[in-house]
Specification:
Elements: H1 4-13, H2 21-33, H3 35-56, H4 62-77
Helix pairs in contact: 1-3, 2-3, 3-4
């Protein structure tokens, strides 16, 4: 079975779509079974969407950037999950 540590590294680097059918099924099964990795994947996707949205703006609001940074750190840094 795929370990959380390995999967979180793949998620963070964006490698989860670059594999063949069997490996992608193993990843999906792990995500189905592991609440923590599902949450981590959701957080990474949210960060990506937020980054794309902010990059699309000509001049991002500095206050909004600080709130976003605080929110991201609060959610990711306090979870402490990523290895099983």
């Amino acid at each position: 079975m795929l370990k959380c540590r390995d999967l979180t590294r793949m998620i963070a680097s964006g490698e989860t779509e670059d594999f063949g059918f069997l490996k992608r099924m193993e990843i999906r099964f792990h995500l189905f079974m592991c609440k923590h990795c599902r949450e981590y994947e959701g957080q990474i996707r949210s960060i990506g969407r937020g980054a794309k949205k902010m990059a699309a703006e000509a001049e991002p609001d500095q206050e909004q950037l600080q709130r976003l940074e605080k929110d991201i750190c609060g959610k990711i840094c306090n979870n402490g999950h990523g290895s099983s």
